[in-house]
Amino acid sequence: ETIYISGTYTADLDLLAKNNYILNGALVMASGTTLSIEAGTTINALASGSDIYIAISQGAKIEANGTASAPIVMTSNSSAPKAGDWGGLILLGKAPINSVASGTSTSEIGSLPYGGTDAADYSGTIRYVRVQYSGGKADGQSENNGFSFYGVGNGTTVEYIQMFEGLDDGLEFFGGTVDMKYMVSAFAADDGFDWDEGFNGRGQFWFVIQGEDEAGRMAEMD
């Protein structure tokens, strides 16, 4: 079955590997909801740039538990996919950030709130997930990445994930405390990993490969 997904969800959403999902707009999981994605599921995003993304709001959760043999793939639906076709995956938590006196801010894309005082905040589990052809930009200052972590807490589990061929950073952290391991950024047009706003998480086994024509660095650390 082909199912189109977008909009703000105020109830849980379950995505199953047997279906063909087309992301045709911004999909925002509201506080109190859970987005569950079965191992082996593929989500095909319209190649329409920055307005096509998946966002897990503060107080919402994502349970994306792929496996090595059945990863979860979020990609472009274009027949000739390229970096920047769509926005990517965004998580927003309640962990501390240091960029503003209030301790809270809003995301570059979607103006969604993030930040707070809960270092152990839980946004769910992301395991064996690959994001491809993402990083669509609204303008020079408002950019998506493959994975964007806004104030995500260390109660969240993130491991065995990959960004492949994105127009901006592979993975960017805006503050937060989330710990991560087994991370791959492959062919990001900007940086493999980028963090600022007081990111205070820990990482192990991070791998970056850049193409010859890409100007980015392995990491940009503020």
Supply the key terms.
single chain, 222 residues, mainly beta, 17-stranded parallel beta sheet, 21 strands, globular
Brief overview:
By secondary structure, this protein is mainly β.
3D architecture notes:
This protein is an all-beta fold and 222 residues long. The protein contains no helices and 21 strands. The protein has strands spanning 2-9, 13-15, 20-29, 34-37, 42-45, 53-56, 61-65, 72-76, 88-92, 105-106, 113-114, 124-132, 137-139, 142-143, 147-150, 157-166, 171-174, 180-188, 193-196, 203-209, 219-221. The strands form 3 sheets. The protein has a 17-stranded parallel β-sheet that branches. A two-stranded antiparallel ribbon has the order 10-11. A hairpin with a 2-residue loop joins β13 (137-139) and β14 (142-143). The termini are far apart.
What proportion strand? Answer: over 45%
Molecular shape: globular
Q: Sheet with the most strands?
A: 17 strands, parallel
Order of helical and strand elements: EEEEEEEEEEEEEEEEEEEEE
The structure class reads mainly beta
Number of helices: 0
Low-confidence stretches: none
> How many E strands?
21
Distance between the amino and carboxyl termini: 45 Å
Topology:
Elements: E1 2-9, E2 13-15, E3 20-29, E4 34-37, E5 42-45, E6 53-56, E7 61-65, E8 72-76, E9 88-92, E10 105-106, E11 113-114, E12 124-132, E13 137-139, E14 142-143, E15 147-150, E16 157-166, E17 171-174, E18 180-188, E19 193-196, E20 203-209, E21 219-221
Parallel strand pairs: 1-3, 2-4, 3-5, 3-6, 4-7, 5-8, 6-9, 7-12, 8-12, 9-15, 12-16, 15-17, 16-18, 17-19, 18-20, 19-21
Antiparallel strand pairs: 10-11, 13-14
